[in-house]
Amino acid sequence: MSVIDADCHVIEADHTWAYLDAADEQFRPQPYQSPDEPDEAFWLIDGLRARRPFGTEARGTKSEKESGFADTTMATRTLGDIKARLAHMDQLGVDIQVLYPTIYLTQISQKPQTDLALAKSYNRWMADTWAQSEGRLRWVAVPPLLTMNAVPEQLRFAKENGAAGIFMRGFEGDRQATDSYFFPMYEAAQELDLAICFHAGCGNPAFVDLTEGDAYTRNKVPVISAFHSLLARDIPVKFPKLRFGFVEVAANWLPYIINDLQRRVERQGRVLTKNVLADNNLFVACQTNDDLPYIINAVGDDNLMIGSDYGHNDTSSELEALRLLKESGVLAEPTLAKIFDANPRRLYGI
Question: Which of 69, 87, 267, 279 has the least C-beta neighbours within 10 A?
Answer without folding.
Answer: 267
